[in-house]
């Protein structure tokens, strides 16, 4: 991943490929943001008017490149838009900094080193810029032109292969000897490394990432970071009676897995359980998805990837909270051995489920994992899942829905998501939708009314949560995978949605901020 350093060097003397400065949108044109004073001075105080001449406005995400002033060792200045000038004294909010740093880092793909001279007011600013830059520099090229010519040409302008991500980021204005700044930078590095690994997993094609392969990646990472791991294979799942996970995985040549990751912090008072939907490919099963609906379904394990990343990050940060991660991994395929619409599964909880639609598979694997997670009696369970197209219809491609059996917990998660820059919205679990899942044969069906399909799925999951445990469900079907153009620090493809919300929840729980 991109390397990060905090530097006290002057912009003029830095050996870098580019100096990044911030430009905001003022009432009368672009305004150069704090942090770039020395750069502006080298342009004789005319940077704003030069940018104006070049057509720059300071709009969010706008990138303007100009030759560096004479005397600078770096050849290029890159001005990145921060959006509106903040109201007096309030400073730029963290998300504006993250997005600007991300857009700049992405625009500098192919470069070796860039110095970021963005407005840093405090350690939080350092953390936000670091996070934005490290996440924005991400690209997934593992499957692109791996031949020698392309490899040699990586970074070169005339190369046919993809440009290598920006290799090194130096943050100017951050205080390398200040404890809080250092900690913020270290947090950003750990978080971005794990979040980017989650993106890699999501982007990895399903012929290379089946449940067994995912479990192997989790095993290696857990060993590296002192996290306990337990992997239940198909035999153990059968022995344990995990009818939901088995029922989904039974149509595939690649058998399912249930992975438990346990991070224990010495004397922590609280215990969180995270549960992730890990369908490594969702064809729909016998209720096969039509063409046009299955091309991106390698992303259906994004919930499990988020949970995995969050647990490893909590361990790397040494948070004072116990965190258990459950990855419910299966491939949903049609075959002669696949579950049929009409089959009844006996779940790990003992409940029976009539499978009316094999494409409603996420709730089946999650139900078993949620029941199992409940046995440890955690203080709260959060599941993360690309669960329903309906949630995407309701909230669009950038916002996840939050459902819960506890209004205060739902509100907390919504606030935490907002704080870390993840758009979300609280959704209800209306009881009247439950009867739509009544089955003549079994205790419940895996489908109900079409209208409110995201809420129906939430109501299904709720039935598997242990008595008295606070539970929330994040339906990330929209934001998990970005099919549109990249923006801010969000790339095309796997985004790492919900990782930062889970990590912040763990941090806040460790700090005793939550009941
Ligand atoms: N993985 C899909 C949901 C999904 C759709 C995620 C689009 C990301 C993008 C899920 O397993 C699914 O197929 N859900 C069905 C449920 C229905 C059959 C009750 C859906 O939403 O159509
Ligand atoms: Mn499905
Ligand atoms: Zn699915």
Key descriptive features of the protein:
single chain; 515 residues; alpha/beta; Leucine Aminopeptidase, subunit E, domain 1; Aminopeptidase; 2 domains; eight-stranded mixed β-sheet; seven-stranded mixed β-sheet; 34% helix; 21% strand; elongated; binds ligand BES; binds manganese (II) ion; binds zinc ion
Verbal overview:
- Strands 8-9-11-10-14-18-15-16 form an eight-stranded mixed sheet, sandwiched between helices. Strands 1, 2, 3, 4, 5, 6 and 7 form a seven-stranded mixed sheet that branches.
- The longest helix is centred in the middle third of the chain and has 25 residues, at 179-203.
- The protein has two domains: 3-173, Leucine Aminopeptidase, subunit E, domain 1; 190-510, Zn peptidases (Aminopeptidase), CATH 3.40.630.10.
- The protein is elongated.
- β10, α10 and β11 form a beta-alpha-beta unit.
- It has 515 residues and is an alpha/beta fold.
- The chain has 15 helices and 20 strands.
- It has helices at residues 37-42, 47-53, 94-107, 123-136, 148-153, 179-203, 211-224, 234-240, 243-249, 302-317, 362-375, 389-395, 407-420, 453-462, 499-510; strands at 3-7, 18-26, 29-32, 63-67, 76-84, 113-117, 168-172, 228-232, 257-263, 271-282, 322-332, 344-346, 352-354, 380-385, 400-404, 424-426, 444-445, 470-475, 481-482, 493-494.
- It binds ligand BES, manganese (II) ion and zinc ion.
- Ligand BES is lined by residues 282, 300, 357, 359-362, 386-390, 392, 447, 453, 477.
- It is found in: Cytoplasm.
- One of its GO terms (molecular function) is manganese ion binding.
- Presumably involved in the processing and regular turnover of intracellular proteins. Catalyzes the removal of unsubstituted N-terminal amino acids from various peptides.
- Belongs to the peptidase M17 family.
């Amino acid at each position: 991943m991109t390397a990060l350093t905090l530097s006290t060097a002057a912009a003029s003397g830095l050996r870098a490929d580019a100096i990044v400065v911030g430009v905001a949108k003022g009432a009368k044109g672009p305004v150069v943001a704090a942090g770039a004073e020395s750069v502006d001075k080298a342009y004789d105080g005319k940077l704003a008017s030069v940018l104006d001449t070049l057509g720059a406005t300071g709009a969010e995400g706008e990138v303007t490149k100009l030759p560096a002033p004479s005397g600078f060792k770096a050849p290029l200045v890159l001005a990145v838009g921060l959006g509106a000038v903040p109201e007096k004294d309030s400073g730029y909010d963290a998300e504006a900094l993250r997005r600007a740093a991300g857009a700049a880092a992405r625009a500098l793909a192919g470069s070796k080193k860039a110095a970021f001279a963005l407005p840093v007011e405090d350690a939080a600013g350092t953390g936000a810029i670091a996070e934005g830059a490290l996440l924005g520099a991400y690209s997934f090229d593992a499957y692109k032109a791996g031949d020698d010519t392309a490899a040699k040409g990586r970074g070169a302008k005339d190369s046919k292969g993809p440009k290598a991500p920006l290799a090194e980021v130096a943050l100017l204005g951050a205080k390398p000897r200040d404890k809080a700044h250092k900690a913020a930078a270290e947090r950003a590095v750990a978080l971005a490394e794990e979040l980017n690994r989650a993106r890699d997993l999501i982007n990895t094609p399903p012929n290379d990432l089946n449940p067994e392969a995912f479990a192997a990646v989790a095993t290696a990472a857990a060993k590296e970071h002192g996290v306990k791991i337990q992997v239940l294979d198909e035999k153990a799942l059968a022995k344990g009676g995990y009818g939901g996970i088995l029922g989904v995985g039974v149509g595939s040549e690649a058998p399912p897995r249930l992975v438990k990751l346990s991070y224990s912090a010495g004397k922590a008072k609280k215990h969180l359980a995270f549960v992730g939907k890990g369908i490594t490919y969702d064809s729909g099963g016998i209720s096969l998805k039509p063409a046009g609906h299955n091309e991106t379904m390698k992303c259906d394990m994004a919930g499990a990837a988020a949970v995995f990343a969050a647990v490893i990050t909590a361990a790397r940060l040494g948070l004072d909270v116990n965190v258990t991660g459950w990855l419910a991994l299966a491939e949903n395929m049609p075959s002669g051995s696949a579950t049929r619409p009409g089959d009844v599964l006996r779940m790990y909880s003992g409940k029976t489920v009539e499978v009316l639609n094999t494409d409603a598979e996420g709730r089946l694997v999650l139900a078993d994992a949620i029941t199992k997670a409940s046995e440890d009696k955690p203080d709260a369970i959060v599941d993360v899942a690309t669960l329903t197209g309906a949630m995407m219809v309701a909230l669009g491609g950038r916002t996840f829905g939050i459902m819960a059996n506890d209004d205060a917990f739902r509100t907390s998660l919504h606030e935490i998501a907002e704080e870390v820059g993840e758009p979300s919205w609280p959704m209800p679990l209306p009881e009247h939708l439950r009867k739509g899942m009544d089955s003549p044969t079994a205790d419940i069906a895996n489908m109900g009314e079409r209208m409110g399909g995201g809420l129906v799925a939430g109501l299904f999951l709720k039935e598997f949560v242990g008595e008295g445990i606070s539970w929330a469900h994040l339906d990330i079907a929209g934001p998990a995978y970005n099919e549109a153009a990249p923006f801010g620090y969000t790339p095309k493809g796997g985004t790492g949605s919900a990782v930062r919300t889970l990590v912040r929840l763990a941090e806040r729980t460790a700090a005793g901020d939550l009941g």
